[in-house]
Amino acid sequence: MPVGTKGSMKGLLQQQLYALNCEIMLSNTYHLGLKPGIETLKKAGGLHKFMNWSRSLLTDSGGFQMVSLLKLAEITENGVKFQTPYSNDDAELTLTPEHSIEIQNAIGADIAMQLDDVVKTTTRGPRVEEAMHRTVRWLDRCLKAHRSRTLSRASFPSFREVWSPYLRRKAVI
Asked: pLDDT tens-digit profile of 113-127?
């Protein structure tokens, strides 16, 4: 699955991806929510049309940016507020479970991932369990937002922060 984080594949043309039989591409909700933004994606008719891609799109929820952009993030029960990483822009993006689904709907994702509270793989202790519980609570909110749409799209839960067998069992119970 090629990664077109910001809605494009660097170094390959769409025709080359088709020739390689790439059936699905991964894009990122956080980055696309900032640039080009929801309104531009809606006007374009979604990311498929925006990038001239006729095959499937899977969108990451933006949760990974809680690790990669941790210094720019403020995580709360409501969601995560990010300062933009773009030096010439003072914009903020607040991702809540509902807003993540809204952006993924504007993108036109065929497969949408839930917003999850992601922690570094080296994190241990109470923060990991807190992230697991918050991810479960956010899953409920994502599913409610997803079900309120009439679009036929797959939506998947994500538990990237649950490495211990004990917490994995606890997450699914």
From this structure: 999 999 988 888 899
